Amino acid sequence: MGGGTSVGTSFVTLYRALLDKGSLLYRGLAPLSLLREELAGELEGLAVLASALQAAPHDPALPEHFARHWKRTARGLLEQWQMTNYVSAVFIGTTATMLQDPRVAGSDVARTSAAVAFLCALSSLGCGALLYLHLARIKAAEHAVAWIGNLETLTARRWPNPLATLLAPATLLLWSAASFALALATSHVFPPSATGAPPAPRPCPRVAAALALAACAAQTLRVAWTVRRLAPAAAARDVAQAARAHTLAV
């Protein structure tokens, strides 16, 4: 009875935290296909404006138009990552509580699902923090143009897909939500034995948790690598070196 109450309390805690943010769940966990299409359209428009700005740098209307478009896109991404970070933090605390519950700890499926939910939420929070800090530092228009150029370069290579990287926090959060729901359901469908004896160790749950840990670590490393490649510092440094070489030649 106490175990069921604890699991129910975990769910209520998560539900109330989501309600506190109003439409957070709807906006932050929208279908990824819609998020992907919307983001791809925004970035494509920015790429066109960046190319036009480089082709006609003296056009007085282009810089303002690009800056307005960039601010709207960057603000949308930052708000999305902020929302997913909040929900991920809630999932981390909730799943950590679930893992201490006897009904979850006594079921291989529930325990493994809760562990996967915890790992995915932790990775979502880490990826979201990396992306948020990276994009929040881009203030100057020339850095934004360089960022768009780096994004196009990575997109042409097709791996890693930078668009998928920008949506990685939402993707991981969806996996965490699915695993959390599975853990919540299986803790009632497959309760531990009434004898109270600890379950016999099995390799499958450990293998599943290890695979989830490896996948989350790989995703986080991929986000960190992509963020480094998108950083406008390298492009700005190349431009400065080229300008300095041209000055010396003259």
Automatic annotation (TrEMBL):
Keywords: Membrane, Transmembrane, Transmembrane helix. This is Uncharacterized protein. It comes from Phanerochaete sordida. The chain crosses the membrane at residues 83-100, 112-133, 166-187. It comes from the Eukaryota.
